[in-house]
């Protein structure tokens, strides 16, 4: 297992070779990862246990479908053009997707970081 972890980079070889003196941040980082993993696991288990079946079960989509169907029916009864309404529904989905696509460039690095110099 140690060979697999070292090969995938989960265990830094620099820490093993220098008896833990090279990467001083490794120990606190591992402790923080473990603490947050436990916190997230407990929160997920509590949510799964405490939420009623209405929110997470097969019936969860029914109220959402009813609400949207009722809102669309209400707007159509008021005389809103069906094509304009469907175009507006498409824009509701397109605007966040376009924003997400536009900010992806901010997450790319211009140059690769030189980790050997750090």
Mean pLDDT: 78
The DSSP helix count reads 6
Structural class: mainly alpha
Order of secondary-structure elements: HHHHHH
Query: What's the count of strands?
Result: 0
Task: List segments where confidence is low: pLDDT < 50 over at least 5 consecutive residues.
Answer: none
Q: How many distinct folded domains?
A: 2
* Envelope shape: elongated
Q: From the alpha carbons, calculate the radius of gyration and give it in angstroms.
A: 25 Å
Residues in β-strands, percent: under 5%
Helix content: 55-70%
The description of the largest β-sheet is: none
Distance between the termini: 28 Å
Structure description:
With 118 residues, this protein is mainly α. It folds into 2 domains: 1-50; 58-103, no CATH class. Helices cover 68% and strands 0% of the residues. The protein has 6 helices and no strands. The longest helix has 25 residues, at 26-50.
Layout of secondary structure:
Elements lengths: L1 H7 L4 H5 L8 H25 L2 H4 L4 H17 L4 H22 L15
Please summarize what this structure is.
The chain contains six helices and no strands. It has 118 residues and is an all-alpha fold. It has two domains: 1-50; 58-103, no CATH class.
């Amino acid at each position: 297992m140690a060979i697999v972890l070292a090969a995938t980079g989960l265990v830094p070889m620099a820490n093993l070779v220098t008896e833990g003196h090279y990467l001083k941040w490794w120990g606190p980082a591992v402790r923080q990862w473990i603490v947050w993993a436990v916190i997230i696991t407990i929160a997920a288990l509590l949510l799964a246990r405490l939420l009623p079946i209405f929110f997470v079960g097969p019936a969860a989509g029914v109220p959402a479908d009813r609400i949207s169907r009722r809102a669309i029916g209400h707007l159509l009864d008021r005389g809103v053009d069906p094509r304009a309404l469907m175009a507006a529904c498409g824009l509701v989905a397109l605007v966040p997707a376009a924003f997400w696509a536009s900010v992806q460039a901010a997450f790319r690095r211009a140059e690769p970081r030189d980790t050997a110099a750090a």
